[in-house]
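Archive entry. Fields below.
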Amino acid sequence: MALARKEAIQIWRDPRALLIILTMPILLMALLGYGVNLDQNHTPLCVFDREGNQQSQNLLKLFASNQYFETRQNLTSYEDLIDSLDAGRCTLGIVISNRFSKGLHEGRELGVQGVVDASNDNTANLITGYARQVIEGYSDSVQADYLRLHGITSGLEPVSFEVRTWFNDDLDSRNYVVPGVVAIVMAVIGTFLTSLTIARERERGTMEQLLAAPVSPLELICGKIVPFFVIGMIDALICIGLTIWWFGIPFRGDFALLLFATALFLMTVLLMGLLISTIAHNQFAASQFAVLLTFLPSYLLSGFVFPVDQMPRWLQIVSHTVPALYYVTALKGIFLKGVGLSVIGGQLAALTLCSLAFFFLTLYSFRRTLD
Amino acid sequence: MTEADYAVVAEALVKRFGEFAAVDRISFPVRRGEIFGFLGPNGSGKSTTIRILCGLLKPTSGRVVVAGHDVSEHAELVRQSIGYMSQKFSLYNDLTVRENLRFYGGMYGVSGAQLREAIAVTLEMAGLTDMESTPVATLSGGWKQHLALGSAMLHRPPIVFLDEPTSGVDPVARRQFWQVIQRMGAAGTTIFVTTHYMDEAEYCNRVVLINHGKLVALGTPAELKREKLGGELMELVCEPSWSAIEALKALPAVVDAFVFGNAIHLLVTDSTIARAEIQRLLQNAGVAMVRFEPIRPSMEDVFVQLTVRRNAAHAEGAAP
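PREDICTED_STRUCTURE:
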C-alpha cells in the first residue's frame, strides 16, 4: 500500500486541492439544490379590471391571496397589459370584462380572459392550471351562493376527488429534487477526484516508473482508489448531511442501506474517473472529459428531474447505461419511500455491474498504457 | 558463454510505430557486472530500446532475455530483478527525499527494518543524508538525479537501466554522477546506461553505437577507436595557415579531412604514405609543414566516421 500512502501524502500536502475537495460538495449542493426548483410560486400577475366593482374585486382577491400568484400591477388599458407581458414584468395577465357583474347577475355564462406568456411552455401550463383552479373556486362559490339564495339546499353534492399525497406530503418539488442532487454531486466529484491522478503521473513522467515496478495493474488501481474512496465517502456524508439537516428532506429509510448504495456508486464513479485518466493525455483533457461524461448524462438521463419513462425509447435505453440512474432511483426510494433492499436490490445489482465493468475496462486500459 | 552468463540478451529487436522503425534489428549481449553504454544521438532509438528491455514496450519482433527471464513471458520476474531510472528522473516533487525513497522501496516490496536500512545506505551513497526531510522540489538538478538513481537502486537489483541519466546536468555533476555509477559497477551491479554524450563512453566497459534505430558498432571504447575508425587520426599544422580541404581529400591515402581550430584533422589509411603525399602538396603551394602527428581519437570521431560513411554508402545505393 505504498501507493495509497503516497497518494494520501500528496493530497494532504496540497491545501488548495483539499479545500476544493471539501467545499465542492457544499457549493454544488447549494447550487443544484436551490437552483433546480420545479414549483411555480409567486408568478407575477397583472390585472386589468375594466369594471372595478365588488364582484370583480372578489375574484382578484382570490388571486392575490393565492401562494402561486403575486399581483404586481393594476393596469388601466389593454395596451399596458401587452407592454407588461412584452417587457416580462408579468407572466400572466387577467382581463375582467366591464359586463362582469351584470352577467353574473343575469346568470349568463361568463368568461375571464387570461393572457399568458408561454415562451416557457412548461411554466405556462402550470400557471394556466393554477389560474383555472382559482377561477373554478370562485365559480363554485358563486353557484353555491346562488343556490342558497334560492333556498335550494338539497343534499346534492358534486363528486369530489380526494387525493392523499404519499411520499412527498407537501407536494414540494425540493423533496423530489434534492436526493437526486446528491447523486449528481457525487458523480461529478467522484470522477473528478480520480480523473487527474494517472494523467498527472503521466505528465510528470512518474507513470513510467510505476509501470516498471513489479506491481500488478490490480495493485496500482487499488492504491489509486483507496485514498480517494475515503475522501469520497466524507464528501458523500457532507452531501447527505446537507440534504437531511439543511434542506430538511424527510429521511424514511435505512441509513446503512443508504451508505451501502453510496459506496457502490462512489466506487463506480471513481473507477470511471480512473478510466478517463488512463485514456486522457493530460490533466486538462482529463478534467474536461470527466465533467462532460458525468455531469450531462447524470443531469439529463438519470431521472433526477426529467422522468426517464417520458423519453423516447432509444433514449431510455441510453439512460440505462448511466450509473447515476440507478443511484438516483435508490436515493429517492430510500429517502422518500423508506424502501428496503427488496425494492432497490435491482438498482444495487446494476451499480455493482457498472463498477465491475469500469474496473475491467480500467484494468485493460492500464495494461496498454505505454504502447 | 551461455545465456545465463549474460545479464541482458537482445536478439534481432524490432520496434515499429506505424511505418517508422524506431528500433531496427538490433542484437547485443550485456555481460554480468559490466557497465554497458548505449550511445546514440537524440531520436536514435535509445529510449525505445531501454523500454523494451524493461518490459514497458512490446517489441514488434525479436527476443529479449533479462536476468535469465524472457521479458515477454515473465515480465513480473524481470521487473523484480531490475531497477529503472527513466529519462525525466521521475520523482515526486511534493514529497520529501525520504518519502520518495520510502515510496519506491514500498513499490518493490521492501519494508520494515530492511527498508530503513536500505534508505540509510542509499542516502549515504547518494550523499543526501543531511537532506532526507527536504522536499524534492527544492533540490538542484544534480541532487535530484542522485536521488532518482538511489530510488532505482534501493531494492538492490542485480541489473539497473538508466535512461539518459546525465542529460541536462552540468559537467561537474555529470562527472560526480559517473563516479557513483562506477562505484556501483565495482560492487557487481550490471549497469545499462544510455547517453548522447559520446565522451561518456570512456566510463563504460563496452558500448554500442546506434543511429536511426540501427546498430552501428559494438565493442570496448578502445576497440572501437582502434578498429572502427577505418584509419589513423592525424593532426596537421602548417605555416602560414593553410586549409585546402578539398585538395587534401583528393589525395589517395586520405579518407577524410576537416578543419579543427587552427589545425587540420585527417583520417588516413597509412600515415607514412599520407605524409609523403601531403608534403608534395604543400611544397607546390609554398607552405611549410610544422607538425604532422597521430592524435587520440574521441568516440565522437568514431561515431561521425561510422555514420557518415554509412550514409554515403546509402546515398550510393549500396546496402551497408
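CURATOR_NOTE: Chain A touches chain B through 24 residues (CB under 8 Å).
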